[in-house]
Amino acid sequence: MIYLDNNASTRPAPEVLAAMTQCQQNHWANPAARHAAGQAASRLLEQARAQLAQLLNGKPRQVVFTSGATEANVQVLHGLTPRDAGGEPPLLLMSGIEHAAFLKAAQLREAQGLLRLQLLPVDAQGRVSLDAAQALIRPGVQLVSVMAANNETGVLQPIAEIAALCRAAGALLHVDATQIVGRLPFDFTGSGADLASLSAHKLHGPKGIGALLLRENLAWPALLPGAQERGRRGGTANLPAIVGFGVAAQLAGQNLSEAALRQAHLRDAFEAQLAARLPLRVFGADVPRLPNTSCLRIGALHADAVLGRLERGGLIAASGAACSSGGQQASHVLRAMNVAEAEAQGALRFSLSRDTSAEDIAAALQIMGEALAPLAQAA
Ligand code: PMP
């Protein structure tokens, strides 16, 4: 099987699995306990925190472990100050292409009167429009949330420019860094973000573990109150997963730029060879993208028809976000980019990982050629 759905989830690295098993077998004591076994577990917890902080150029005490990026994102919403200076619910600006679960959580709070929500539009390439950002990021906005890289198109967002606008307006900036971490360098301290979210399973770590990063001295209320994580996230730490996350972060930091270049090269060759054979439209092709992601449409083919054929041939890919696929509506990301509904229904996402080889890409192209020849003639 050729697996090109790494933006949905990646294969845990063997070193991650080994460290997790070791931890389950030997360090099952509660890391909050005072006895020696608990203290040994606590040292592993702090080692993982340091490994993650190092990858993100942050400090260990800035890392709060959560159950994943979804929880970290919701904790961001939960921590907004309930009333602004004028006594109104907080004003939140979010890009219209944030992760579907995050948008849903914000919309739910808006419907409950807990916040006021404005969406930042994106251009036809899927990048947050800086003109719109300049007009909308103004005094009175409490928090701006823009992801570093989009999960469907891979398009990188202008975080540095948005951070400068936030600073000038006195607004906090939250960056969902889930898709960028482990694929390109992400410097939390240098990014200008006050908060960031991420998830281990996108960087060859385990599922069900993620982190919220907090700027130094930024107090942020817990979503789950309790003593753990310096009072910022209650509940017994999921130590095996955290240990796996730490190892995954350490591995991701080794040869990160080299791995990114290699994936970009394979991805570009994949797109070029497909374009030579089939009528192709690549979404976000004209702006900087993650090196591993290709979101494209082949002729007028519907994604479901293509994906079924590819899977039977041994190639796994996705249509838009795994989180929104299954529904009949086209992806909110492509709709925000003003892609026509019929075109968006054809969007396929191929996402590589550092494990993807040139042979995998050659095999994927062969499978696509064979599976799509009859359809492409009809298209
Ligand atoms: N944000 C982005 C940008 C994502 O791609 C994802 C995963 N699809 C999430 C958040 C949610 O992460 P998790 O699975 O850890 O809850």
From TrEMBL:
Keywords: Iron, Iron-sulfur, Metal-binding, Pyridoxal phosphate, Transferase. This is Cysteine desulfurase. It catalyses: (sulfur carrier)-H + L-cysteine = (sulfur carrier)-SH + L-alanine. The keyword Iron-sulfur applies. Belongs to the class-V pyridoxal-phosphate-dependent aminotransferase family. NifS/IscS subfamily. The keyword Cytoplasm does not apply. GO terms for molecular function: cysteine desulfurase activity; iron-sulfur cluster binding; metal ion binding. PANTHER family: CYSTEINE DESULFURASE, CYSTEINE DESULFURYLASE FAMILY MEMBER. Its cofactor is pyridoxal 5'-phosphate. The lineage of its organism: Bacteria, Pseudomonadati, Pseudomonadota, Gammaproteobacteria, Nevskiales. InterPro entries: Aminotrans_V_dom, Cysteine_dSase, PyrdxlP-dep_Trfase, PyrdxlP-dep_Trfase_major, PyrdxlP-dep_Trfase_small. It comes from Solimonas aquatica. Residues 2-362 form the Aminotransferase class V domain.
